[in-house]
């Protein structure tokens, strides 16, 4: 059923085989999920954030393809010891670069990973009832894309009913 | 890109064993079949079979005898009813478009099922653009076509009904003979086509008993070379060519015949039909060993498609929950077991396998599905190796999934 061989690069392969920061975190300050199992693409991020708004620990779980696993893993590496303000600036393109590039059909994996991260950061401030000035009320590109994918899953589930 | 693939290949070095189970998508050609083809490249029969010299006559003799043999394996006994094409895709295109051209004055309706192969779905999409009406019959949870619905749908406007004899993904042996009876009763003018590519060589296919007008078969699905297939066209049934060019021995497909591939296809047929029942029994035994092993060793798995005699002998299709299929194909590849998946990722489409969706599987069940096909060349050791590796791979990926998606 596969049609086009995906030329995953060695970095993606390495992170797929030996993902860093994998697993649930019991003492996480905030947990955020993006994606939908219906799309075959879902990520959970666990962040441990200290009072200085620095990410002390980050871990992930991922239901998805090799690119999904690799991008989630690299995001947890990239944001470790970052201030939330800096982590917020992470773009999906820099994530794609950090894994050595992604095939175009896998861009959405990088976007979803960053979407999940930004969701986690937004959730953290919402819980604290604080709105930092660098975080716009309007959703970022990646958050919007994550939401769109989730909406798409709903549309698909309706469209794929047998009576169509 | 190629550099990345080289690295991926390097990651496979030192494999203890390799087991190729992706026989849905391509196969390796066993040596005896390959050897049968080689003389036809430069020793004999390399001429054009329509021309008047020895290498041409040799080619003609070979092609005619090949068609005769294949026709006898299909129960039709007439070489003229076999039309070689470059494969299943081309034969299905020829069947549907060729019949639609020939029948366009008689009606507009073409009836297929929801679980036909992609090439049938795409051909009918194309025909729809040209003014034909396409009706897709739903299937039940095992992939069987709703016969009552077929009765309802076939009418005087119907020109073609096309149902695969065996489903390519889940192995359902369709009740084609019954469907043909219903079609002919409601409209004796309509043409019945069956894609028998996944049945030929794995169960007896008798086109006369089935009473079909057109039937597709494919070489690589029985370990023959890729690039060759055939369309059976019952004597007296008229369909039009869809490509034009120099017509040779094949009335419905122009161009110079590929004699070595035809020879390989024929040899593959002879080898599978020599001791046919034993070959099929072996495939069934190994397939059952694979499926039963997976079901007993791994939790949260589902078999897709029917069981027993209503499922073709070579097909195994299993969903592994909390496991994404594309990741699983890569993980298994790194361990030397080669399979394909119905996952959306794996298919490069937004949607998972249309067959699994049509039988009512949930999205995550489709995303976590693996398709495996057994051939007569597999051994018990191959299957046992797969049964050692698949649970390890599933366990590792489920470890990455963790609790993600659990609270649904």
Commentary on this structure:
The complex is a heterodimer of chains A (164) and B (408). Chain A starts with 9 loop residues before the first helix and ends in a 5-residue tail after the last helix. In chain A, a hairpin with a 4-residue loop joins β1 and β2 (41-49). Chain A has one domain: Sufe protein. Chain: A. Chain A is 46% helix and 15% strand. Chain A is globular. The mean pLDDT of chain A is 89. Chain A has helices at 10-17, 66-79, 84-88, 92-98, 107-128, 141-159; strands spanning 30-36, 41-49, 55-63. In chain A, 45% of the residues are buried. Chain A is an alpha+beta fold and 164 residues long. By secondary structure, chain B is an alpha/beta fold. In chain B, α9 (207-210) links the parallel β6 and β7 (214-218). In chain B, the strands form three sheets. Chain B has a seven-stranded mixed beta sheet, with helices on both faces. Chain B has a four-stranded antiparallel beta sheet with strand order 9-10-13-12. In chain B, α2 (31-37) packs antiparallel against α10 (259-273) and α11 packs parallel to α16. Chain B has helices at residues 2-10, 31-37, 39-42, 54-73, 88-103, 118-129, 147-153, 176-186, 207-210, 259-273, 276-297, 325-334, 344-347, 354-358, 363-367, 380-401, and strands spanning 19-20, 82-85, 109-113, 133-137, 158-162, 191-195, 214-218, 229-233, 301-303, 315-320, 337-338, 340-341, 369-373. Chain B folds into two domains: 2-30 and 276-401, Aspartate Aminotransferase, domain 1, CATH 3.90.1150; 38-273, 3-Layer(aba) Sandwich (Aspartate Aminotransferase, domain 2), CATH 3.40.640.10. Classes of the chains: A alpha+beta (164), B alpha/beta (408). The interface between A and B is large, with 43 and 49 residues.
């Amino acid at each position: 059923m596969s049609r086009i061989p995906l030329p995953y690069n060695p970095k993606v392969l390495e992170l797929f085989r030996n993902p860093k920061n994998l697993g649930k975190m019991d003492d996480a300050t905030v947990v955020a999920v993006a994606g939908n199992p219906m799309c075959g693409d879902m990520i959970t991020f666990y962040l441990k954030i200290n009072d200085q708004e620095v990410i002390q620990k980050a871990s992930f779980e991922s239901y998805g393809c090799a690119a999904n696993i690799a991008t989630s893993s690299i995001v947890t590496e990239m944001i470790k010891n970052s201030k939330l303000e800096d982590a917020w600036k992470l773009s999906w393109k820099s994530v794609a670069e950090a894994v050595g590039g992604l095939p175009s059909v896998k861009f959405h994996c990088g976007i979803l990973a960053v979407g999940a991260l930004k969701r986690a950061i937004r959730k953290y401030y919402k819980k604290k009832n604080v709105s930092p000035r660098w975080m716009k009320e309007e959703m970022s590109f990646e958050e919007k894309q994550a939401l769109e994918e989730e909406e798409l899953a709903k549309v698909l589930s309706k469209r794929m009913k047998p009576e169509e | 890109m190629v550099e990345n693939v080289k690295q991926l290949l390097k990651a496979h070095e030192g494999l203890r064993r390799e087991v190729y189970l992706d026989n849905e998508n391509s196969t390796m050609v066993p040596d005896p079949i390959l050897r049968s083809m080689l003389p036809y490249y430069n020793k004999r029969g390399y001429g054009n079979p329509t021309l008047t010299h020895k290498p041409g006559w040799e080619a003609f003799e070979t092609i005619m005898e090949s068609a005769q043999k294949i026709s006898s394996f299909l129960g039709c006994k007439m070489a003229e009813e076999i039309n070689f094409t470059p494969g299943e895709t081309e034969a299905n295109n020829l069947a549907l478009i060729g019949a639609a051209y020939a029948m366009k004055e008689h009606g507009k309706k073409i009836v297929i099922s929801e679980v036909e192969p992609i090439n049938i779905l795409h051909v009918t999409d194309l025909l729809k653009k040209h003014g034909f009406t396409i009706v897709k019959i739903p299937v039940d949870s095992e992939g069987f076509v709703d016969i009552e619905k077929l009765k309802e749908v076939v009418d005087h406007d119907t020109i073609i009904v096309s149902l695969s004899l065996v489903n390519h993904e889940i192995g359902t042996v369709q009740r084609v003979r019954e469907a043909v009876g219903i079609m002919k009763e409601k409209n004796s003018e309509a043409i019945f086509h069956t894609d028998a590519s996944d049945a030929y060589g794995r169960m007896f296919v008798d086109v006369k008993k089935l009473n079909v007008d057109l039937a597709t078969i494919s070489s690589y699905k029985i370990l023959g070379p890729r690039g060759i297939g055939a369309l059976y066209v019952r004597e007296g049934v008229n369909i039009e060519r869809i490509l034009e060019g120099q017509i040779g021995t094949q009335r419905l497909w122009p161009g110079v015949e590929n004699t070595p591939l035809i020879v390989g296809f024929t040899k593959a047929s002879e080898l599978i039909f020599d001791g046919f029942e034993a070959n099929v029994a072996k495939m069934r035994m190994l397939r059952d060993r694979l499926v039963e092993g997976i079901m007993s060793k791994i939790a949260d798995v589902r078999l897709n498609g029917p069981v027993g005699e209503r499922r073709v002998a070579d097909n195994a299709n299993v969903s592994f929950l909390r496991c994404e299929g594309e990741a699983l194909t890569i993980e298994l590849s790194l361990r030397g077991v080669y399979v394909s998946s119905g996952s959306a990722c794996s298919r490069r489409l937004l949607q998972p396998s249309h067959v699994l969706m049509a039988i009512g599987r949930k999205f995550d069940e489709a995303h976590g599905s693996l398709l495996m096909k057994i051939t007569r060349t597999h051994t018990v050791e191959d299957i046992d190796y797969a049964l050692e590796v698949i649970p390890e791979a599933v366990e590792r990926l489920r470890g990455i999934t963790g609790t993600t998606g659990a609270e649904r």
